[in-house]
Amino acid sequence: MKKYLAELVGTFILVLFGCGTAVVAGEKVGILGIAFAFGFALIGAAYGIGPISGCHINPAVSLGVWAAGRMSLKDMIGYWVGQFAGGILAAWILSMIVSGVAGGYNIGASGLGQDGWGPGYQGGYSMMSAIVFEFVATLIFVTVILGSTQKSAPSGFAGLGIGITLVAIHIFGIHITGVSVNPARSLGPALLVGGTALAQVWLFLLIPSVAGIAAGLLFRTKTLEAD
Questions:
Q1: For position 37, what pLDDT does the model report?
Q2: CATH number, domain at 50?
Q3: Which residue, 133, 151, 174, 178, could crosslink 115 as a Cys pair with Cβ 3.0–4.6 Å?
Q4: What 3-state DSSP class applies to 56?
């Protein structure tokens, strides 16, 4: 239970500070600021809860770790429960914070940093662009995680490398999908915003998960596993 609770806390940190920065300060800090908020939140969580759970804080990462043969199915499901609960709780807390702004805040109209695609969302990219980006970005992200945490990797630096990778992914992809690469990060805001965000969340649940499994298999088959 300690591991599952740690995953809840870590996912809460990632979603609250990442999506919170996008919602509250996005116009002031821009893409770079939002990207660094997600990356730095991940780095902080990695060193805070990493010794307890490994700091997956992402169902796609847990799928990759399971597919690589590094965790049991039971633990993966427990991690998922903690991760999705953390993402939903963070979105709820964020909604409470922004609702106190002068003049009020319309969550349906202004959102909670939810992911999406198509006309009216960020750069207006197509669903196919969203699928390709989310698959490739998640594949790279989970590959970096599995590679930097394998036994032969330098110890103590994984959190930093993973966080920097997440920053780079956000700089590239915020205008495409808002960047998910993490089903728990996407589901929380979508549930509270509803409408189009909830109708499109399937893509951010499915595609990163498939990519996570693909990355895990690259390590399970020793294609990328160090000798």
A1: 98
A2: 1.20.1080.10
A3: 178
A4: coil
User: Alpha-carbon distance 38 to 193, whole Å?
Assistant: 20
**pLDDT of amino acid 140:** 98
Read off the tokens for 36.
């660094």
Sign of the torsion angle spanned by Cα atoms 48, 142, 24, 27? positive
- Residue among 165, 44, 53 nearest 62 (CA): 53
Structural domain of 125: 2-101+113-220
Q: How far apart are CA 110 and CA 129, in angstroms?
A: 23
Q: Residue 122 region, left (φ>0) first, then alpha (ψ -120 to 50), else beta?
A: left
Our count of domains for the chain comes to 1
The Cα-based distances of 54 to 4, 17, 156, 215 in angstroms read 11, 20, 12, 17
Across the chain, which has 227 residues, the per-10-residue mean pLDDT values are 96 98 97 98 96 96 97 98 98 97 93 97 97 98 95 86 97 98 98 97 98 97 85
In a domain, 73, yes or no: yes
Q: Are 225 and 70 in contact (CB under 8 A)?
A: no
Asked whether 193 and 174 are in contact (CB, 8 A), the reply is: no
Give the pLDDT score at 1.
86
Residue 213 and residue 161 in contact, taking contact as beta carbons nearer than 8 Å: no
Of 4, 36, 30, nearest in space to 18 by CA: 36
Residue 190 lies in a domain: yes
Has residue 84 been placed in a domain? Answer: yes
Tally: H helices and E strands in the chain? 9, 0
